[in-house]
User: Fold these one by one.
Assistant:
Number 1:
Amino acid sequence: MSNIMEVKGKRVIVTGAAFGIGKAMTEAFLESGAEVVIVDINETALKQTADDLNVEYITADVSSEDAIKEIISIFNSSMGGIDIFCSNAGIGGESGLLNTTEEDWLNIWGVNVMSHIYAAKHALPQMLEQESGYFVNTASAAGLLTQIGAAGYSVTKAAAVSFAEWLKITYGNKGIGVSCLCPQGVRTSMVEDAPGIVSALVGIDGIMEPADVASDVINAIESDQFLIAPHEKVLDYIKMKAQDYDRWIEGMQSLQAQLLDSFPEAEDMFK
């Protein structure tokens, strides 16, 4: 069943919208004629973006189920219903494994995974009743291929991909569209403020502009495309991984060694 949705005139929530991809998606939706409400935990930056783009905003921590319920309630009161929910908020978390705490894991799991689950859980009933709706869940190429050094990020983004797949499989024949966004390096503060070794890794196939990623999101919604891979090389890597898993892992080990040769000061990040 196809769930192609024209963006023009649709009612849209975008989380993680104060900066980067979320802000660019908001701009793209507005340019396409949608009505948008933006959400972020950073109230100062969120208000600035809302003022710049002339949209309503809700300050919230999307790792909280109660916050998601309140976001949806406020949005419904203002807009009369949700057509598209872009669950875009995400964090990088701590690197490695040995020095991460339980709190680190719970924090990144809450933002990168549970926010998607809560959004679907509480937006789906209304979407099913209106027999249409669309979720755009932002994951990462790291969720498909693993990110060297970043255990928490890789694990949670893989879970985000898996949940998006489940959502599409379970509700795709019931009028619900789902797209999963899996970019590599994008020119955002998360990348620009990262240590040199991380920037070198995520930029290995080039750094994209947020506006270009946002354009891919609009196109995916309007064609009911599940996987959004703005960096086309990611699709080649997925095929390589599937064809010979052990060889792919050996290649990743080799890449890790090369990175550590270039950035020996980052060795603790890989433990």
Number 2:
Amino acid sequence: MENFSFYVPTTIHFGKGQIENLSSSIKQFGGSKVLLAYGGGSIKKNGIYDAVTNELKKADIDFVDCDGIKPNPPVSDVRKGIQIYRENSCDFILAVGGGSTIDAAKAIAAGVCYDGDVMDLMAGGHGEINAAAPLASVLTMAGTGSELDMGGVITGEKNHKKHTIMHPFLYPKFSILDPTYTFSVPEKHSMAGCFDALDHLLECYFVAGSETTDVQNMMNEGVMRSIIKNAPKVLANPEDYDARANIMWASSMALAGFQFVAGKKGSKWPMHGMGHELSSLYDMTHGVTLALIAPSYLAYTLEKAPQYTWLFANFARNVFGVSEADDATAAKLGIGKVKEFADRINMPKNLKEAGVEESKLEYLAEKATEWGSLTALCEINKDDTLEIFRRAFN
């Protein structure tokens, strides 16, 4: 097992009515003027906005709205938030929403403490994060795990390229996870969130060095099983509290401190690298892009890295209950089960059905590998990436 450091400082308040902890938690971290970040306004329709602001008002905590944060948040939304924060002398950021809102809040938190442009602070930029405003989240959609990690993804201005911002300062101070807040999330977004969480686990599972990480692998398998079990329950009954609760907690656990990839060789997260380009070009829901890519990526990787057939076979048996004794056969059956799960939760069948043009596949492969090969179990270069996109097309 490789050396690693593990750090997750976020406090979680999980369950019904946990919004009652909001104001005291903000005050614990010195908050007195809150930038309230949220998206398109659904929280005003479902009552969550009132629940949040009533708690703030009761505690005499001032707040100013930063609304309209879009999915796959563009840097323009981040810059707007930085401006509002500074103009109103805020001292705390509260993100109420899903991954896009929380990701934007993290970039705002870093940006308000930096004199230059926030894009400098993205991975590969020339800026450095030396401080960040305190932030917290009230989660309204499960999937990304941003409520319990230190990273975010922001869409840049040039070619809508996805950029990562990451630093331990960007962990939320606390996150409130009330499964009832996800009851009204539309089916498409609920199921996309389920696959997003599953894919985080897949990205952590299929990584070189997995032969030495029994604890991480076995914990990961259990969380994957919980998603596969509970996603169809949410699909059948969106107000199934326990199913929503298990999905919400599984999504948070999938990325918490990158615990399931700890001790492995490291990964460039190939499926996410490809999925981000689909989101950039077609403004596609993140989890949907992963559902489209994952089966083809896994099958291609199995072919290119047959020395890891045992890992794919373990996955098939321990996650999907495949009983086949032959490793090679079991491995292929397990990958087929991933596709079956995506179909079961109503993800698009292929890239063509999702509206992707075949003529764009080479461009997508080029952009996905613009900063180097996408390595996990093996190197995935531009040609490999193009082949994966082609297999995912039909």
